[in-house]
Design brief:
Length: 203
């Protein structure tokens, strides 16, 4: 099933400029995302994902409350989350194996969302990339969108803070973090919050 934006199927865009021209609300969503305040995280509940890695968890996980990664310059951080089960998978993709990675990311979330009582949908969040001269980020942005379009599941694109809307490259010298909280850090109900983190608290 092709990707869905606002519950409508989309065709593969020819460029990120084309995508944001068709769906200008994505740019506004990206602006709002970039303006979110930074938060501190207790490293005892953090699972860090390095380049070419991905990890999945659920709100029932007693060890991991936060999935995170950073240094996504030309790379992209990919989050898929099921709104019913709260299962989430975060990947740090560099374009080396996009076509094989994406099915594994989706499978990781769906396999953790088998309970029929937990109705919901798959939501996709993409962050990363910049307008580099070699167009590496641009190519990865389009390949990720295309790869998700090829999945059999309905996948709703919610956040698209990628090449063309993300950041000027100098921002990445700040060692920017991107985190998904499959459950609240203090053990509250599932939040699915996404946040920037500049500092991890050492406790």
């Amino acid at each position: 099933m092709p990707l869905l934006i606002q519950n409508r199927r989309i065709e593969r865009p020819g460029s990120t400029v084309d995508l944001f021209a068709r769906y200008p609300h994505l740019q506004e969503n990206a602006r709002v995302f970039r303006s979110k305040p930074v938060v501190d995280v207790d490293p005892k509940c953090l699972l860090y994902i390095q380049q070419r890695e991905f990890a999945a968890t659920t709100p029932a996980d007693n060890s991991v409350a936060v999935l995170g990664s950073d240094d996504a310059t030309t790379c992209h951080l990919v989050l898929v989350r099921h709104t019913g089960s709260g299962a989430a998978c975060l990947a740090h993709c560099d374009g080396s194996s996009t076509w094989s990675e994406v099915p594994l990311i989706v499978k990781a979330v769906t396999s953790l969302s088998k309970d029929p009582a937990k109705e919901g949908r798959l939501e996709l969040h993409l962050v990363g990339g910049f307008d580099d001269e070699s167009k590496t980020s641009h190519k990865l942005s389009l390949n990720l969108l295309s790869a998700f379009q090829r999945q059999k599941e309905d996948i709703h694109l919610e956040t698209c803070c990628i090449t063309g809307t993300c950041f000027h490259s100098v921002i990445f010298s700040l060692s920017l973090f991107f985190f998904i909280q499959p459950r609240a850090i203090q053990g509250h109900v599932s939040t699915g919050a996404i946040a920037f983190i500049f500092e991890v608290l050492v406790m």
